[in-house]
Amino acid sequence: MSIRNALIAASVVAAGFGSGLAFAQPAPQPGAQPPAMHQPRAERPAPGKYIEGRIAFLKTELKLTSAQQPLFDKLADEMRTGAKAMAEKHEARHQQTSAPAAAPNALEKLEQRQAAMKDFTAAQDRYLAAFRPLYQSLSPEQKKTADDLFAKGPGGFNGRGHYGPRSH
Known about the structure:
Layout: H1 3-14, H2 51-62, H3 69-98, H4 106-137, H5 140-150
Helix pairs in contact: 2-3, 3-4
């Protein structure tokens, strides 16, 4: 084996490809649906479609007391508001893309991105304002559950390079 080939092989193994890590995922079954994040946009569920189920799940898992219920209700209302706004934006974008129009230039793209970031920040501020009092009212055991359930980002991404609950 040449030195060049040995270096390539070592690089592949070091990256995890030669060790079988790249093949740890089972092969998809014939006719099986791909995960939602890999589905074409038209086949993905509408944003916020399952918000009521998510709210019911959170309520059950947190095992709220009657004193905590009004705080959770405020958070649930904010979650519904956010889901509705997201669905409306999704629909507006869908309507925009179905009508032929000139592609935005670089300046317009940056302005659109900035507006979206401002909207996102405002939504996060409202969500945090509803979440903070609930979280502060939780017992240590409830906070551990909340940490697992609320610390995930979009699609379950935990911000540390993995999907699922954050590990400390």
